[in-house]
Amino acid sequence: MIADILKEFNIPARHSGVSTGKHWLKGEGEVLSSFSPVDGKEIAQVQSGSKAEFDAVVAAAEEAFKEWRQWPAPKRGEVVRQIGEALRTHKTSLGKLVSYEMGKSLQEGYGEVQEMIDICDFAVGLSRQLYGLAMHSERPGHRMYEQWHPLGVVGIISAFNFPVAVWSWNAMLAWVCGDVCIWKPSEKTPVTALVCQHIVQSVFAANQVPEGVCNLVTGGREVGEWLTHDTRIPLVSATGSTRMGKAVGSAVGARLGRALLELGGNNAIIISEAADLDMSLIGCVFGAVGTAGQRCTSTRRLIIHESVYDAFTQKLVNAYKQLRIGDPLNENNHVGPLIDKQAVQAYQQALEQVTKQGGRFLVEGRVLEGKGFESGCYVQPCIAEVQNYFDIVQHETFAPILYVIKYKTLAEAIDIQNGVPQGLSSAIMTLNLREAEQFLSSAGSDCGIANVNIGTSGAEIGGAFGGEKETGGGRESGSDAWKNYMRRQTNTINYSNSLPLAQGISFDL
What we know:
This is aldehyde dehydrogenase (NAD(+)). By secondary structure, the protein is α/β, with parallel strands linked by helices. The protein has helices spanning 2-8, 51-68, 73-89, 91-102, 106-126, 165-177, 190-206, 221-229, 242-254, 277-289, 309-321, 341-356, 391-394, 410-418, 433-440, and strands spanning 14-16, 18-19, 31-35, 42-47, 134-135, 142-150, 153-157, 180-184, 214-217, 235-239, 258-262, 267-271, 299-305, 360-363, 382-385, 401-407, 422-423, 425-429, 449-452, 464-465, 468-469, 476-477, 486-494. Helix 9 (242-254) links the parallel strand 10 (235-239) and strand 11. It is globular.
């Protein structure tokens, strides 16, 4: 099946991972081998880029920007609309490849491609709505307004857990804004990036888009460092760990560039005594085990009112007994593998720390072995009873480990929710209107996303996505996130016969 998908997109056993949109460069860097965590088999080899090739890509991007920024925004939007149509055509194949290369369930693979389609639709409408403001001048015969211009070359560093969707969140908005993009995908999932590049190339060729608008440079950490340090790239959007984000933010800030950071999460759901426990269970379990706990919005902590603690934790334990773990391309399974054995090792170390720091497991965790688990990347989702101040609870472990914590008052629950370094997603399950409003108030959740009666995991593209504190403060996707990809310009026009100065200043010659 995967061989047929690769053939569909002209992906040979070894493929260059460097492209300027119309042409594929040789790929003179290291060879990246993409192995599926599903069965441990090699998917393909990708020739990553050298520093010389990276510089050639940046030069091509700079040249393309000079033309692309002059295309009318609705015309750029039409090109993005066609990308959305191409993704609809290839949704099944690309979704299966996402599932196989990353390890998420097939439905989540399809869902990720659907996110790409949705952001294309959003961007098409946005291409006719890049609005500025008009202001009244204090000087007679003057008009003031602001407008937004394309920023330039946008660097995009994406993570393995959403190998294509988060790139599209950035690229589609950047393109309708008139920017050009250089994509550095995760070295753990490079093949899906090759497929996306092929899809976009075909659409761009049909519309005579200049070479250098859509660029790809695969590789390891060094490619990310080239992007972050390059003064020719005014904006770097990076998705990944807090550790990585601090390095990116520091490097980009040192050259006074812009960094759009989407980093770690340590997301909690408060289960109120006024919650619908059966409905809450669905959101909690999917949030904790979906994508094998490898979403930045995965539910890491449940903060449960003492009056419903025993009843709800028993529901959780019973639900975990029903989880089906295995090949994510089998739609009967709920949980697939972790991305690689390094992630499995981090999972095992976290389990050890839970015990050392005084936690107690309600559902034990372990690495799964035997038929169907030969890749060594499958683990048992687990539940641990802990205290919020444990070091391991304060840390984000990218694995299906769910921590449960008891609370007495809503104020205490909010303090626990906010009492971690990260601030991405949060939720409360309650039918009490006062509790819901308090959770959403300025004295409530300190996260970029706060939900009532839905879980922490997943987000619609219409809203700005991102978080506070060590999550980085960035916002992508919907609302006015497009402003990240543009520069604001204030304009004043004097149509009078004199030149009065502001604030009534007099300067007579």
